[in-house]
Structures are given as C-alpha cells and as structure tokens.
Amino acid sequence: MGVLWTSTDAAAATRGQATQAFAATGISIDTRSLRPGDLFIALKDVRDGHEFVRAALDKGAAAALVSRIPEGCSTDDPLLIVPEVLPALEALGRAGRARSRARVLAVTGSVGKTSSKEMLRAVLSAQGTVHAAEASFNNHWGVPVTLARMPADADFAVIEIGMSNPGEIAPLAKLARPHAAMITTVAPAHLAAFESIEGIAHEKASIFEGLEPGGVAVIPTGLGVSPILREAAQAAGEMLTFGPDPGSDYRLVEARIAGDATVVRAEHRGRPILFKVMTPGRHFATNALGVLALAEAAGCDPMVTAMDLGAWEPPAGRGQRERIYMDVVDEGESFDLFDDAFNANPASMEAALEVLAGASPRDGVGRCAKGRRIAFLGDMLELGADEVALHAAIARHPAMEKVDLVHMAGPCMVHLRDALPRAKRGEWHETAAALAERARHLVDPGDVVLVKGSKGSKVSLVVDALKKLRQPGAAEAHKGKE
Fold first, then answer.
1. Any residues with CB less than 8 A from the CB of 20 and at least 6 apart, and which?
2. Helix, coil or strand: residue 373
3. How many helices (H) and strands (E) in the chain?
4. Dist. CA 77–CA 475, nearest whole Å
5. CB 88 within 8 A of CB 18
6. How far apart are CA 40 and CA 122, in angstroms?
7. Domain Mur ligase C-terminal, which positions (predicted)?
8. Residue 113 marked in a binding site
9. How far apart are CA 150 and CA 102, in angstroms?
10. Which of 64, 85, 335, 412 has a CA that sits 20 to 30 A from residue 358's CA?
11. Under 8 Å between Cβ of 22 and 6
12. 146 is known to lie in a ligand binding site
C-alpha cells in the first residue's frame, strides 16, 4: 500500500505541527479496526479518543492526530498536534478531495444509499479504479474520513451522505464537491426530526448545493415530492431522472423477480435496456436505474454499466439471501434467510415484505407439510409522532397477504401485533435478544425467513441466532445442488 499522507502534507492540510516525521498509509478512527501504518484520529464521542492514542501507536499506527499530548505519550512519539481534532479531520478531507483527479459521485436518500453506493463500486470497477466509502461512513465523521482516505490517483470516488437532523447534508456535500449527486428516494424516515416528508425532501435536495460547476443532479420520478427534487435539481444545473414516470431518462418498465435475481426491463430515452440484478426486489431495480444515470454522469457507457450490474450482490444486513443448511447429508434440511436487519423505515419495510411475498418456500421437507413465509420484525425507529400508525399500517400492506407468520420484537411492534389477523400473529417479545433466544424454535426446513428492523432495535441478534443453526461444512457439501 502506498503512502497516503506524509507528515509534511498532513501538517500543511491541517495547519498542525508534527512532533516527528511520519508516512501514513491509511486513516483510522477506531483502534479495534486500526491497521499498522494508519493515521489515528483522536475524535471525541462517548469517550475521548486521546485515551486510546497510546494503544493505537503500540498497535502500529504511523501517527495520531491530536489536540494535546495524550497521557502516556510525549513529543518523541509521532503526533500531529492541532487546535481541534474534528475541524482538522475536515481539513484533511478537504485536502484529499482537492488533490484528487477522480470523478466524485455522491449518494443520499431515505432508502438504498449503501446499496446504490455498492452497486456503483461494482460497476465502476470495470471502468477504472474506485474509492468508495466503507460501511455506512456517511455522517460528519464518515464523509471527511472517506475523503481523507482517497488515493490521489483514483479514477472514481463514491461518497455516501446521510442525515438524522435538518442542516446536515449541505455542509457534507460542499466538503465532497461531487461532479454528480443522486437521491435514491424520499420516504418517511427520521420523522422525529422533521415535520413532514416535504421537509425531508428539501433536506435531501440540499445535496445539490455541493455540486461542482457543470455538475449533474440525478433524481427519482414517481414520488409525491418529486417536484421539490426537480426544482432543486434544475437550479443546480444539468439533471437526469430515473423511475416509473414517462419521460424519465431511465424509465422502469418492468421488474420481474426470477428466483434470486430481478430481471429489469427499462428504457433509456426510448431505447430498450434489459439487465439483471443478482438479488430479488423491485427497489433494487429502481436503484440500479439511478446508478446507470449516475454512471452516465461520470462519463461511463450506460450499456456497459448495465451488463456489469450483474456482478453486484447486496452486503450482509441489506437484503442478502442465503440458504442455511442444518444437515450435511440432507439438503432438504434447510431454510432461506433474507438478512435485511441493518435498517428500517416504512418504505424499506414494504420493499422487504414484497421480496418475501415473492419468494417460494419448499413444501414437504420440514415438520410443517407446507413451507412458510415468515417475518421477524424489529422496531422502526425515529418515526416521531406517527410511529404507532406507521407500525400498525404494515399489517395492511398487500404483500402481507402472502406472509404466513410474523414474529416481532420491541415496544413499537406491539402496534403491528395488535393490527395483524390472529392467524398471522406470531410471538412478540420486548427485546430482540428475547426473540433471538426463541428463533431456532420458530423456523422449519422449507421456510423462507425475513429479518428486518432498524439497527437500534438489535434485530440482527435474530440473524445471528438463525445462522447458528447452520451445520459446519453443510453449505460446501450441498454447493451446486440448489
């Protein structure tokens, strides 16, 4: 790995003072994931990052960005001393962006930010070197870290920008200075901080305030708030659209789920496009069209990009599907698991239930003669005053007709339990941990199982419990038999 920041360059960017010369090959804000050669950033959260500087240096950090000499350290250690750490990190990100030759693309939206970012990583990798945000590095720490980590010679950079409160997106967009920016969709999320979905739309649209001159705004059609997005996009400069509406630059004609994939039929300014996304879900098809538009804005060929979309698979916790084999010999002793436990709001919950409804259980292989579609659902958080109604409304979604049983965890999910028909009402527990303890008793071979909830609901514990039913070596033994 090449040198990312020398002490001279980092000191110039941050206006700090280096106690010793150093050459850093990476950036870290967490000693648990720090790699030798990283520049450790001593940010303050629940605990002060200065408390971990000595441990970071002992673990092999090239240096530490600090506002004072930490306990256990001295000027003999490689430290970059600045007045305040977070502004210095932002300055480092700004300098990383300034020296880059990359076409910078930014993604925001209520649903699908990370999936779209990972789609872009996959398709752009075939047309150049790509630098993209790790995990969900999309906040006031994550965006400058991503920019500071950017290799100067990258061809493309994909920046994910999120928000929890008003006024957060525009400053991050201005830091990233994208050549093109995309809004995946606008849906009820973070309503505890916003008065209406229109307020969310205005906040999402503020990403276009950071566009470089001549930049391209990519927006979805078919939403009630699409006129708000369109007005902001037109004010920013060039605009590309994607979605179901006639006249969209990338128009979705049909999204057909075929097994573990989605076959997408679309039109690009009247020209037909047919491609496949290797995961089921209409929402993935729509996101893929936005990715095509954003890739076009980056100068890529839409047809080549469409073919490369087949190389992408969703990351764990975001709709990933796998078969859990519970027996090395008998492949029938298995069930299918949709791990969508990373986050949830009403729009993503509906999308996940549609995928579950379209899945095919297997009959005659388990204790129950008929395979079932089962959902394990955790609370959707940060929905504000409407949280009771929004949880209860899940019961009325058309996809729920094909769901056989719903198990729930969390205080908000009580309202879904009460709204469900008794025949579909499974177990409810106060916590996801309690539901996880019961999970192995609630599934059967042949079932298709969805786990979905906000990250804070900790419903990923249910995923962990279900994956522990996997027999070691069984997946390898049955490979190719599905």
1. 7, 63, 75, 76, 77, 78, 79
2. strand
3. 16, 22
4. 49
5. no
6. 29
7. 326-454
8. yes
9. 9
10. 412
11. yes
12. no
Q: Distance between CA 458 and CA 276 in Å, rounded? A: 32
The answer to whether the annotation marks 204 as part of a ligand binding site is no
Which tens digit of pLDDT belongs to each residue from 31-63? 999 999 999 999 998 899 999 999 999 999 999
Q: Is 467 annotated as a binding residue?
A: no
Domains of the chain: 5-84 (3.40.1390.10), 100-311 (3.40.1190.10), 320-477 (3.90.190.20)
Nearest-angstrom CA–CA distance, 80 and 67? 8
Query: Which residue in 197, 190, 140 sits closest to 165, CA to CA?
Result: 190
* Spatial separation of the C-alpha atoms in residues 429 and 406, rounded to whole Å: 12
Neighbours of 43 (CB within 10 A): 17
Q: Which amino acid is at 226?
A: S
Q: Is 451 annotated among the ligand-binding residues?
A: no
Q: Which residues of 85-114 are buried (b: 16+ CB within 10 A; e: fewer)?
A: bbebbbbbbbbbbeebebbbbbbbbbbbbb
Cα 96 versus chain centre, distance: 23
The reply to whether 115 sits in an annotated binding site is yes
pLDDT (tens digit per residue) in 103-129: 999 999 988 888 899 999 999 998 999
Q: In sequence order, what are the beta bridge partners of 81? A: 17, 66
CA atoms 175, 181, 184, 188: torsion sign:
positive
